[in-house]
Write a structure and sequence with these properties.
155 residues
Amino acid sequence: PRFRRYARAGAYALSTLLVAGASLHVLKLAFGRWRPRNLHQEGAETGFSLLAFSTSANSFPSGHAQVSMTVATILVVLLPRYDLAWIACGLLVAFSRVPVGSHYLSDVIAGGFLGIAVSVLMKRAWEARGEPLKLTFERDWRLLGQSSVRTPPDP
C-alpha cells in the first residue's frame, strides 16, 4: 500500500508536469511575444507576433515560472508540511527571470498562474479517482528491529 501511494504521487507529478508543459507550448506558439532583450534587435513594432515560430518570440508565458510554480504546487500538495519553503523557492526562480531580461513581469505571472492552475486541476482529477495524494514519510521501526513506540533516552 505504501509503494502504491508513492507510485500514485509520482504519476500525479509526472502527468501534471506533462499537461502543464504542453499547455505552455501551445500558448507560446499562439501569442508569440518577443523577449525584452530581443524586441529592439528584431525591429518589431509591438511585443506580440501572433503565431510566430521564432525562438525570440516565445516569451509569453514564462516556462521557468510555469515549471517552478508547477513543481512548488505539486510539492505543496504532496508534502504540505514545508509549504512556505516550496512556494518561496518557486517564486524565487520565477521572478528571477525579469531582472535578466528574459521576460516581462506579465510573462512570469502568466507562467506561474498556469503552473498553479494545472496542478490544482490535476489534483482534483486524481483525487476524484481515489484517495488523497498527501504523502507521509514514516519510519518503519520493524525494519530497524525496534518497536514502533520510541521511549526517550535515560538522563
